[in-house]
Automatic annotation (TrEMBL), chain A:
SUPFAM superfamilies: UBC-like (SSF54495). This is Ubiquitin-fold modifier-conjugating enzyme 1. Belongs to the ubiquitin-conjugating enzyme family. UFC1 subfamily. The lineage of its organism: Eukaryota, Metazoa, Ecdysozoa, Arthropoda, Crustacea. It holds the Pfam family UFC1. Keywords: Ubl conjugation pathway. One of its GO terms (biological process) is protein K69-linked ufmylation. InterPro entries: UBQ-conjugating_enzyme/RWD, Ufc1. It comes from Petrolisthes manimaculis. The keyword Glycoprotein does not apply. The active site is at C137. The keyword Transmembrane does not apply. One of its GO terms (cellular component) is cytoplasm. One of its GO terms (molecular function) is UFM1 conjugating enzyme activity.
Automatic annotation (TrEMBL), chain B:
InterPro entries: D-isomer_DH_CS1, ThiF/MoeB/HesA, ThiF_NAD_FAD-bd, Ubiquitin-activating_enz. The lineage of its organism: Eukaryota, Metazoa, Ecdysozoa, Arthropoda, Crustacea. GO terms for molecular function: ATP binding; metal ion binding; UFM1 activating enzyme activity. It comes from Petrolisthes manimaculis. This is Ubiquitin-like modifier-activating enzyme 5. One of its GO terms (biological process) is protein ufmylation. Pfam families: ThiF (PF00899). One of its GO terms (cellular component) is cytosol.
Length: 188, 396
């Protein structure tokens, strides 16, 4: 069913849509390798949330391992001990240069019915493809896709379906416009 | 100069000082009792005239009411201003955002307020417009765990008398915040209104939600006004959302009009009222709760409401049975039409879910979750502790 949705949505002709379409194809394969979650619990659910949090970590670890194996390692995340605040780094390789950004988000009280709103604070105000506070603007099909698949989708899926495609489309554009410039970071 | 003359001079200077301090306009003194006297110094005379004309039976009652406005943006700020001018008793304002110059295509905020928190800036302006209103501001995000309990406690204890507020008005701009308001109101059994403007700025809606009695925000996919624009031709390149002060002003007007009708008990309150700006079409409908709602508190409130109906004398029950017959057989969401005399919808609008009024559609279909990405589920009885998993993640 998921495949069907992505195909339906990818018949657009504008430049953005073509780029999204390319992203979708890659995303489809990625998605198949991210484990699905079992427990429907949000951060106010005490014990059930701890179970869910373990599942979140398990899927994230698997996803990052997959990315490394596929030579497509592109983010690191960690959380506070309650698992309500997440932060880390994501990066995008463009013409052999690594562009790295801080990423952060809170787990909303209505999670997993609503997805987390991923933020890239450094890019706040630099692109119109963002809402206030550096929240990334998701494609039209992200929300329906999340709604159809919750609670089986978790943070790893939000990264793969939300932030991944966003970076792939927006960062080259921001580099081209000169809004984002390369700066050497200490880690390699 | 005589003492009297000096006293007069002091008074004049005090008045001038007050004017300068408040940017030219002196705030008026508080008014202890609303009067209907028609004099140019009475800010309530035209409102109290509603009584004389027989529209409202007891307008002064508005001063006993408390309303919480969540989201003080394009719709919320105008909503708060209207309620302030109407002489509402108390307003609670929630928003975590700051005023930006990019907001200046909207009403209410002014360029010199850029950089201030929206709730702080709004309260300052509103207080000068009507010092009789009590304001309480909270500069935080209601969707996070840290703030949610406090948010709920203010809904529960924030009224003028320390009890529940009379209404919560959701004027937020995103799904997550609407869902948070929905959750809070379901848990607290709090009556509320939801409002929204589409991201293409040419439609909007308001919805009246009574937990258990009408659909909650989670009972069905979000209901939106059919835009007649083929989503596939809608260009979103380079922007997230457009906005117009007109659409936001109209939605705020629709919202406050229904708030006044509810609080002051006149006319009929619309359960769902849409606005299609392209054709000036205003669809209305009522949405019944979904017995399979994902929100457990919603289901609890539905049971309570059904029990309440069952306990009522049979005559009233008959009316309810009639209403329920309107529910369409093939209707997944328990959505039923009450007003069948809608004007003909503009061409090109279709309902995705049957039972929706013409011109109203769902934001997306939401069938039963059937995730099939080809992926396995995570191991259920993984003995690794959370701390170990966190450490593993860090070591990657
Ligand atoms: Zn519900």
């Amino acid at each position: 069913m998921l495949l069907l949705v992505l195909q339906e949505e990818s018949e657009y002709t504008t430049a953005d849509r073509v780029k999204e379409k390319m992203v979708d194809r890659a995303t489809r394969t990625t998605l198949a390798s991210i484990p699905l979650l079992r427990t429907k619990a949000g951060p106010r659910d005490k014990d059930a949330w701890v179970v869910r949090l373990k599942e979140e970590y398990q899927t994230l670890i698997k996803y990052v391992q997959n990315n490394k194996e596929a030579d497509n390692d592109w983010f690191r995340l960690e959380s506070n001990k309650e698992g309500t605040r997440w932060f880390g780094k994501c990066w995008h390789i463009h013409e052999l240069l690594k562009y790295e950004f801080d990423v952060e988000f809170d787990i909303p009280v209505t999670y997993p019915a609503t997805s987390p709103e991923i933020k890239l604070p450094e890019l706040d105000g630099k692109t119109a493809k963002m809402y206030r506070g550096g929240r990334i603007c998701l494609t039209d099909h992200f929300k329906p896709l999340w709604a159809r698949n919750e609670p089986k989708f978790g943070i790893a899926h939000a990264m793969a379906l939300g932030l991944g495609p966003w970076l792939a489309v927006e960062i080259p554009d921001l580099i081209e416009k000169g809004v984002v410039t390369y700066t050497q970071k200490t880690d390699s | 100069m005589s003492v009297a003359e000096l006293q007069k001079k002091v008074k004049e200077l005090e008045e001038e000082l007050r004017r300068v301090k408040h940017g030219g306009a002196a705030p008026r003194e508080k008014i202890t009792e609303m009067s209907g006297e028609v004099v140019d110094t009475n800010p309530y005379s035209r409102l109290m005239a509603l009584k004389r004309m027989g529209i409202v039976s007891d307008y002064e009652k508005i001063r006993t009411h408390t309303v919480a406005v969540v989201g003080v943006g394009g719709v919320g700020s105008v909503t708060a201003e209207m309620l302030t001018r109407c002489g509402i008793g108390k307003l609670l304002l929630f928003d975590y955002d700051k005023v930006e110059l990019a907001n200046m295509n909207r009403l209410f905020f002014q360029p010199h307020q850029a950089g201030l928190s929206k709730v702080e800036a709004a309260a300052a302006t509103l207080e000068s417009i009507n010092p009789d209103v009590t304001f309480e501001t909270h500069n935080y995000n209601v969707t996070t765990v840290d703030n949610f309990d406090h948010f709920m406690s203010r809904i529960q204890n924030g009224s003028l008398t320390g009890g529940s507020v009379d209404l919560v008005l959701s004027c937020v701009d995103n799904f997550e915040a609407r869902m948070a308001v929905n959750r809070a109101c379901n848990e607290l059994s709090q009556t509320w209104f939801e409002s929204g403007v589409s991201e293409n700025a040419v439609s909007g809606h308001i919805q009246f939600l009574i937990p258990g009695e009408t659909a909650c925000f989670d009972c069905a996919p979000p209901l939106i006004v059919a835009s007649q624009i083929d989503e596939r031709t809608l260009k979103r390149e380079g922007v997230c959302a457009a906005s117009l002060p007109t659409t936001m002003g109209i939605v705020a007007g629709m919202l406050v009009q229904n708030v006044l009708k509810f609080l002051l008990n006149f006319g009929t309150v619309s359960y769902y009222l849409g606005y299609n700006a392209l054709s000036d079409f205003f669809p209305t409908m009522i949405v019944r709760p979904n017995p399979q709602c994902e929100d457990s508190w919603c289901k609890k409130r539905q049971e309570e409401y059904q029990a309440k109906l069952a306990a009522q004398p049979p005559k009233e029950k008959e009316v309810i049975v009639e209403e329920e017959e309107v529910v369409h057989e093939d209707n997944d969401w328990g959505i039923s039409l009450v007003d069948e005399d809608e004007p003909a919808p503009p061409p090109g609008t279709t309902s995705v879910v049957s039972g929706l009024a013409e011109g109203i559609t769902v934001a997306y279909d939401r069938p039963a979750p059937t995730a099939n990405t080809g992926a396995e589920e995570v191991g259920a009885d993984d003995a690794t502790s959370l701390d170990d998993l966190m450490a593993q993640m860090k070591a990657l």
